[in-house]
TrEMBL record:
Top-level division of the source organism's lineage: Bacteria
Pfam families in UniProt: ParE_toxin
Source species taxonomy: Bacteria, Pseudomonadati, Pseudomonadota, Betaproteobacteria, Burkholderiales
Alphabetical keyword list: Toxin-antitoxin system
Source organism (scientific name): Paraburkholderia ribeironis
Protein name: Plasmid stabilization system protein
Length: 112
């Protein structure tokens, strides 16, 4: 018997990343490529919900809040998430080529 999927919540920081990613992909490659990318991200989130422990701790976040942040790769994108109780919180969706450390600094500065 398969375990039920965890609930999930896409946080505002991840929504911003998805919007930026969509704008870039549509502008550079077109709507069909975005549809494929979006479907791949949704599939990866479904896999995270089913197997939340399968992701690994991103090097940039090692030692940060008890190492409970993980990442899963979805094509050329990273999905940074955290599992609390029965819910997966999607914190970031970002291109693998972006500097995650610099992005995290910008996010923290915006929050202050």
């Amino acid at each position: 018997m398969q375990a039920p999927l965890l609930k999930y919540r896409i946080l505002p920081t991840a929504r911003i990343g998805i919007d930026e990613l969509r704008s870039y992909v549509v502008r550079a490659f077109g709507w069909e490529t975005w549809r494929q990318t979006s479907a791949q991200i949704q599939e990866t989130i479904a896999q995270i919900r089913q197997f939340p422990g399968s992701g690994h701790v991103p090097a940039e976040l090692e030692g940060f809040v008890d190492d409970n942040f993980r990442q899963a790769l979805s094509g050329k994108n990273r999905i940074i998430y955290q599992v609390r109780d029965d819910t997966v919180f999607i914190h970031l969706v970002v291109d693998t080529r972006r500097d995650l450390q610099a992005l995290l600094h910008r996010i923290v500065l915006r929050l202050m």
